[in-house]
Amino acid sequence: MKNFKIGRAVGLLLSFTGLNSEAQIEAPVVSLVEPSWESMAENYQVPEWFLDGKIGVWAHWGVPSATDENRPNDGSHYGRRMYGPNDGETGGQLKMTEELTAFHTQRYGHPSEFGYEDLVPLFKGENWDPEALVKFFKANGANFIMPVACHHDNFDMYDSSHPWNSVDMGPKRDTLKEWKEAAYKHDMKFGVSTHLYWSPRFFKTGRQYYEAGTLEGKLINMDFDPSGYAAQDSWNEHWFDRCWEIIEKYDPDMFNNDCPYPDEKRGKNLGVKLFSDYINRDLKENGGQQTTVFSCKNGKLDKKAFTYNLERGSSADIQPEPWMWATDVSGGWFYRKGASNRMSIPVMIGNGIDAISKNGVVMMNVALRGDGTLPENQAAYLTAFGEVLKINAEGIYGSRPWKIYGEGPLKMKGGRQGENHKAFCQQDIRFTTNNGNLYAFVLAPPTDDVEIKTLAKGGLLEQEIAAIELMGSNEKIKWKQTSGALEIKRPKKLPSQYVSGFRIELKK
Q1: What is the pLDDT of residue 22?
Q2: Model-level pTM?
Q3: In terms of domains, do 267 and 157 share one?
Q4: What is the CATH number of the domain that holds 175?
Q5: Residue 88's CB: how many other CB atoms inside 10 A?
Q6: What is the CATH number of the domain that holds 419?
Q7: What 3 state SS string does 161-200 have?
Q8: Which residues share a beta bridge with 502?
Q9: What angle do CA 62, 65, 70 make, to 5 degrees?
Q10: Cβ partners under 8 Å of residue 99, min gap 6
Q11: Are residues 266 and 347 in the same domain?
């Protein structure tokens, strides 16, 4: 554990607790994190439940989910594209916008007559069963969920002070409350994801059809400058208040900020103030022990200050700080019938184990239909990964990286937006450790004997091998360790069609 600064925290804590002077002497000393990235880096601690849990499900669901499932493209930016080309759009982005604008006009009417606000009544969630969905996620290996609380379209999926919300409109349900109740019923952690900060510019092209001061104007964010909102105090304070309302009302175990935030130069530091306040709130409630996770996508920051969200990316090597591989199994974040995931199921599973071998946690996004149901093609990804997780649980959950992540010809590109789509082969092997054992995962069904060069005699493995077993199998595994490699005879029967996980017991 890193040392917490204590300084001014004692007085603040005592004021917070309201204890008498005698009790104050025995009160636990809780250090408060300063609203700076330096203080966050010094004090931020990733809780064990996140490190051990490994697998989570992100959920994008909202107004875009209820638009015509046969639309030509996009989902997360439907509201932006439906009003016509935006400033600076060129090439493929411009083409997508023109196609979607034409589709919307033909399907629903011209945006001046049928705007984004008119799509809200179509979003009913009539078949949404959060308890059944969470039970399915849990059964397939997930230990936490992270639904979207508000996307770029400025529509809140909870009981919000903002008038455009899922309790007063659309499904008429407090989806965050119900997600959380279901998660806790199934012993899962509950997170939230907010994408609010982009929203003043999101409907910029559509502003020509609206008036400030109206209910529709609130949805389109007419109260804020679409170009200069990042330097607008009223917007930054509005963003802070909306985010803090989520934290106060729903007490999430994880808070993911998916887009920019008020910075130190133009936003009066309100971004890091919110994030440090979130951590401080947790420290106060838990006697100085951090139990929450804060994640964002700013790769320029010190990774000790938060949990890095590597959206659709990958890591080239083991990272010193835990990170999150956030991917999407739907093909478009929000549901669209024609969307498809460019990652095959075997590749997604291999990518997930690769991330875990490099100190990562896997977060898979699902995109629910407008009625709240999970499409079968997305469920297939979770079910397949769930099979692998059940068989290989002891080498996944609670595991930590080994000396190196593994070996093999497939090298991952480091950074966001570069996730792997290439197939793995049996030479691609990843390592984890747990309870004194070493685990080796072969990321493709072996067609021949397995050779692990890293584990040759005289190599990185200093301890002697006591035994090797194939997880999920009772077959006696034949093996030998030479100066060239650890050679494992190919098992007669493989328990999984995707991954073969070997437990390597080491002599004490």
Answers
A1: 39
A2: 0.92
A3: yes
A4: 3.20.20.80
A5: 7
A6: 2.60.40.1180
A7: CCCCECCCCCCCCCHHHHHHHHHHHCCCEEEEEECHHHHH
A8: 440, 470
A9: 165
A10: 72, 73
A11: no
**Statement: residue 1 has pLDDT above 80:** no
Tokens 């999407």 map to which residue? 328
Distance CA 148, CA 150 (A): 6
pLDDT digits (tens, 9 = 90+) for 395-432: 999 999 999 999 999 999 998 888 999 999 999 999 99
| Range(s) of the domain holding residue 340 | 313-371+383-508
Q: Is residue 259 part of a domain?
A: yes
Judge if 82 and 152 occupy the same domain.
Answer: no
Q: How far is the C-alpha of 480 from the C-alpha of 488, rounded, in Å?
A: 7
Residue 145 CB contacts under 8 Å (≥ 6 apart), including other chains: 56, 57, 58, 59, 134, 137, 179, 183, 188, 189, 190, 191
Burial class (CB in 10 A: 0-12, 13-18, 19+), 383: middle
Q: Is 15 helix (H, G, I), strand (E, B) or coil?
A: helix
Residue 219 three-state SS: helix
Comparing CA positions, the residue from 363, 359, 351 lying closest to residue 413 is: 351
pLDDT band at 7 (very low <50, low <70, confident <90, very high): very low
Residue 363 falls inside a structural domain: yes
Q: Are residues 343 and 462 in the same domain?
A: yes
Q: Return the H-helix or E-strand segment holding 433.
A: strand 429-434
DSSP-derived secondary structure letter, 207: G
CB 81 within 8 A of CB 101: yes
Please calculate the CA angle 320-148-72 and round it to the nearest 5 degrees: 110
Distance separating alpha carbons of residues 498 and 388, to the nearest angstrom: 7
DSSP 26-87: HSPP-PPPPSSHHHHHHH----HHHHHH-EEEEEE-SGGGGS-TT-SS-STTHHHHTT-PPT
Q: Above pLDDT 90, what percent of the chain?
A: 91
Does residue 186 register a pLDDT over 90? yes
CB of 386 within 8 A of CB of 139? yes
Distance in angstroms (rounded) separating the CA atoms of residues 292 and 55: 16
Q: Are residues 324 and 363 in the same domain?
A: yes
CA 289/CA 160 separation, integer angstroms? 29
pLDDT band at 448 (very low <50, low <70, confident <90, very high): very high
Region of residue 170 (left: phi > 0; alpha: psi -120 to 50; beta: else): left
pLDDT, one tens digit per residue, over 210-223 is 999 999 999 999 99
Q: What are the strands of the beta sheet with 486-488, ordered from one edge?
A: 450-452, 486-488, 479-481
Residue with structure tokens 């437990």?
Answer: 503
Among 33, 45, 46, smallest CA distance to 324 is for: 46
Residue 383 host element (H or E): helix 376-391
* Distance (Å, whole) CA 82 – CA 152: 14
Judgement on whether residues 202 and 104 belong to the same structural domain of the protein: no
Residues 258 and 321 in one domain: no
Residues 275 and 407 in one domain: no
